[in-house]
């Protein structure tokens, strides 16, 4: 299929906030963490267990339907198909990256500071990153939300909501079943306000910043702070 010059208006829709309890939110975020990560053979073997856990959780219908868009998609029927699709979407599109701070900072000198803030947020929740991955990697943030401090994780996700919405829109436009996972995630977050919506629309128009500086130019580092009861430790 040839690329098009337009994004359908339906793909610009706002995902509604859906009421879920804390246990349901943790389950959704843990499932999305695994399913949005690169499909290694080990992860792929757990897909049927994830499907069973989600089915048994009696999730709200809109969320369950979005998750099923991925789990029931033809692209997920074999590991080889899924690997090929994953690379074509997430490795080759600037507007479909899993690295949340990239949407706001691109490859500018601010990126390093943004990455440090994710690390400080994890430390504020009593965790250290043990994986060879950048700390703003969406599956990692979702794992932290599911197994760590959900309040701090919620702040990280909400403060990068416009990037998550751009990711969802890009996946929708590409016809990717991964759009269902991101849509389900968005449904567990608060409804976006007008300011976030405007930033989201600007991201669609302009894309992430393109200044090529490199992530090592961190500049002054500011510790993560969140509310009155959380801080860097």
TrEMBL record:
Source taxon at top rank: Bacteria
GO term, biological process aspect, one: nitrate assimilation
InterPro entries: DMSO/NO3_reduct_chaperone, NO3_reductase_chaperone_NarJ, TorD-like_sf
Alphabetic keyword roster: Nitrate assimilation
Keyword Cell membrane: no
Pfam families: Nitrate_red_del
Residue intervals passing through the bilayer: none
Molecular-function annotations in GO: metallochaperone activity; unfolded protein binding
NCBIfam families assigned to the protein according to its UniProt record, in alphabetical order: narJ (TIGR00684)
Protein name (record): Nitrate reductase molybdenum cofactor assembly chaperone
Organism: Flaviflexus salsibiostraticola
Classification lineage: Bacteria, Bacillati, Actinomycetota, Actinomycetes, Actinomycetales
